[in-house]
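User: Hey, my collaborator sent me this sequence without any context and asked if I could get a structure. I don't really work with proteins. Can you help?
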Amino acid sequence: MGQSSVRGEGTRKSVPRARELGWDDDLYEGGEAADAQDDAPEEEAGASKGPGRAERRRGGGGGTGAGGRAAARKQAKKTGKRKVLRWTAITLSLLILGTAGAGYLYYEHLNGNIRSGGRAGGESGVKKAAPNALGDTPLNILLIGSDSRADEKNIALGGGKNDRDRKPLADVQMLLHVSADRQNASIVSIPRDTVVPIPRCEDKDGHKYAATENRPINESLQRGGPGCTLTTWETLTGVYIDHWLMVDFAGVVAMADEVGGVPVCVKTGVWDKSNAVVKGGSGLKMPQGTHEVKGEQALQWLRTRHAFGSDQNRAKAQHMYMNGMMKKLQGQNAWSDTGRLMGLAETATSALQVSDELKTVAKLFDLSMQLKNVKLDRLTTATVPTVEYPQRPNEWLQLVPSSANKMFSMLRDDVALDKNGDKAGAKPKPTAKPKTPAEAPGSFGVTVVNGTAGDEQPPTEGRARTVAEALQGKGFTQADASKEAEPRRDTLITYPKADGDQGRANALSVAKAANLPDSAVRADAKAEGITLVVGSDWREGATFKKPKSVAGDLPEGADDKATCMDVYSVYRWDGKS
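Assistant: No problem. I've predicted the 3D structure and written it out in structure-token form, which is a compact way to encode the shape of the chain:
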């Protein structure tokens, strides 16, 4: 954001449109051409091979006769421990196919299916959360639905044959957060039309894209691939994201077919077709009640917007689908049934594109095992509340600051989004100790900036000066207030990335003095020194008083778990015509 002066502060200066051609936009007439066509190409996926270290079984004793086999059995008893370790390395292959030789070949085949790309497309400065008392950390995975038309299958399913060369948009974005104790999980969506700051990103070919403040979040995929979408989420939420998974139209259809259909529900019959107001539609045609969708109908469900009334409700329908798929997989014993695992492995490795650290079957299997124990009644789905974006009220959205801040804080602090969270007995996380001790507080400078206008309310005058004076009183004698403003919702401390552990240790000492959480500290490649931006969440007091997050205390309108979807009146179907 641009900077502006704030009265009462010091003198130091602080160191395609979303609705067009998305998963649903080509379904409706009257759209305009995307206006971000200089963005990056979609993330290309190269086949990656895993470490082919499975060992072949060999006979002992120098032969294959009875004597050789007996010798082999005798030797096996002596080397049992070594065999346990060896076979552990190829457990996944055995689970999938059941024999060492064929399992190894199939394992390599699956590795060859996997397409991957870099985890991050830019620098967010966000660090992984500190472990809890048991040494565990939360798991965060960004799920992305791409509207790519790069091949015939996707064109056949999504239309838009003239868009084969258009860079894809990230039209479905969900953050899957799994608690450190793996007892609860949440899926949080941001509607694709929501305008957010998109940070500077670089694509796989080294093409750089400048940061922007006024574009919808789905364009992040065009500005550096899925890694840029991940960096955008990290910058926005302050949540470290471990991995991303991306699927296109054809992948959605394949996964729905593999599980045998996904249960969804509508309160009345629905037919998302042309009407007098809106031409086109997803084509979803379904009678009242619960039905299992698969194939093209699964894609129609995920793309339907107008029949469900809004983008917020579209996200609700997508969450219903995700809940249904999880329930189906758990009911099928997908993590323990060898036959089901083999089919899922084949389909998933072909359908999904993943971040590089997941580019082997073994890594994907390990990831899935972390998800299998989350009970469905502890899986919460939510959408960050939004309102119309003033500059383009009929097209774009913007976050409701207070609601977004509350939800992002709960994710950062690993607070359960369901109301059973307080009963789970989760152990508190200790403060992370930097490897390098902080320098004396008076030996380095701290620039304090007033950012209290971040909630679109007038700034609180004199905040930078008040906080700087409080720091001076605690030994940070070089703390000084800036005359510039940098509006932001949450208070933040940045330090130069080049300063490494020492810079982080010094910044953490400032955070401790101000009573700020460690999660407020981030590295910044452009920073010239330590800067504390006082956000709109700290409008009074010399030290920060963080609102207590209560499990299940979601903002109004955020919790969107529904048993059946409402249908907008003009799209209701009586099941006859």
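In plain terms: The radius of gyration is 26 Å. You can pass these tokens on to your collaborator as they are.
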